[in-house]
Structures are given as structure tokens and as C-alpha cells.
Amino acid sequence: xxxxxxxxxxxxxxxxxxxxxxxxxxxxxxxxxxxxxxxxxxxxxxxxxxxxxxxxxxxxxxxxxxxxxxxxxxxxxxxxxxxxxxxxxxxxxxxxxxxxxxxxxxxxxxxxxxxxxxxxxxxxxxxxxxxxxxxxxxxxxxxxxxxxxxxxxxxxxxxxxxxxxxxxxxxxxxxxxxxxxxxxxxxxxxxxxxxxxxxxxxxxxxxxxxxxxxxxxxxxxxxxxxxxxxxxxxxxxxxxxxxxxxxxxxxxxxxxxxxxxxxxxxxxxxxxxxxxxxxxxxxxxxxxxxxxxxxxxxxxxxxxxx
Length: 306
Prior knowledge:
Layout: H1 2-12, E1 18-20, H2 22-32, H3 53-64, H4 77-90, H5 97-100, H6 105-112, H7 121-138, H8 143-148, H9 154-164, E2 171-174, E3 177-180, H10 183-195, H11 217-224, E4 228-230, H12 232-239, H13 249-273, H14 279-291
Antiparallel strand pairs: 1-4, 2-3
């Protein structure tokens, strides 16, 4: 994911609303260098897993819909993961490509057992249709064929996803330059690797190429830990729960600087210990830290990308 790393670094070198604190990076790397957790993908039992192709289909659907929960205070990722899991357990054909193209908003709500319209519900339905259509058109309706086509390469799998499924093309323009972020495409790769423990469908020889997944939680965690610094104006926007429009300089800087900061933390840990830490592992640590802090103040952006 060199394009993600390179363009994130480009933003970080020109950012005015979000900056990296070099001493904060070193202090944090020192703090966690000996305690990075290994990825335990399904530690809460929230995901569907049958060790076969239906799991791959589930993960693609899950990550097509894995975005923007914050407008509904009671909705979170677990509702999505568990709801889709139970739908598949009740009906193994629920995610057939032909059926994905026909779901409506109310049907998706019913599947997730959610009593009111979902945030960006029309977009979620559109993306379900897109996944079903492209799977049927290019991969005989099966996400496993998408994975087989990547030849066990995480980089190639991200390229396949973003070329075939427009809804996964998470990029922006910052000061005239295209910036690649690819949060959900990379999460699908990481979920695949984690679910299958790096074997079978999850055997990806270059998993170390995957960056962290720039969302709402991790930037806020890094800011709290002193790794990222916000400008007074950005801090005021976030603290007052005002929405930041997708594609603005503030929003791109929050996400790109988070990606670059995690790369810098990885490099620091490597210098200190000689160990190569995966971004997937660091992301898990940071995300879990943030989820454990319900008072964490994060930015708010309406987006289909995260």
C-alpha cells in the first residue's frame, strides 16, 4: 500500500491543523514496544466464521457496510457484525450475489434488528447492490473468487477491490494532490487474514504492507496519547461536536496524519527492539484503547468510507 503511505506522508509534511509530535511518538513507542498484542480477530464471538467461502462472502458484505455509526448514539460495529452473522446463520443464501442486489433499507434494518433508519441507509443499500452486481458480473457471484484472484497478495487484493467496487475507493484531494486512504478495502484484507489466521483464504504473504485503518477512533486516541497535536480551531470543532465535512483539509489531515503517525511508531519500535510490528496489530491496540474510553472525543464526518 505504498500509495497510501506515500500520500499520507505528503499530507503530514504540509499539514497545519494536525501535526505529529516526534517526542510523543518516541514516548508511546517506548511504552508499548514490549506489549503489542497479537491479533485475536474474533475475541468477542461477534463474527460469522465457518472456515470456508461463506465466511469470505460475509466479510466482504460486512466491510462494505462498515462505516459511519456515530450519528446514532446507540448503534455500533457489533450491531452490524452480529446482525449479519445471525442473518447468515438463519439463511445461508442471505448474501448470495443475486439477493444482495435486491435488499431495501427496511430489509437491511430487519436483518440487523434495528428499529429505525440507519445512518446513510440509502448509501448502505446502494453499496450492497454494488457488491452483489460486481460479484455476479466478475467473480461468478462468489467473494472467494475475488480472493483467489489476488495470488495471496494483500496489495493485489486491495487493488482488485478498489478497481471492481467503486464504493471502496476511499481517496480524497488535498492541496491539489490525490490522497489514498483505503480504510475499508484494507480492513477486508486484515479481516480475511485475521479470521483465517493467515492460512487458506487468509494466507497473504505481504500482510505487512497493510497500513492502519484511518477512522474516527484512532486519531482521537493518538491525540490523547500526545502523538498527534490539533490546532486550536480544530480542537474547538471536535470538542463542540460540530461536523467536519468530508474532503476538507481538516478531515484529510486527521486521517492521513494518523496513518503516517502509525508508520512512524512502527519505525520507532523497530529501531528500539529490532522487531517488525504490523500496522494491523498497532491498529488493534489503539482501537481497543479508544473503545475502552467512552468519553473519548472524536471528530464527526458523514462518510461512506469510515
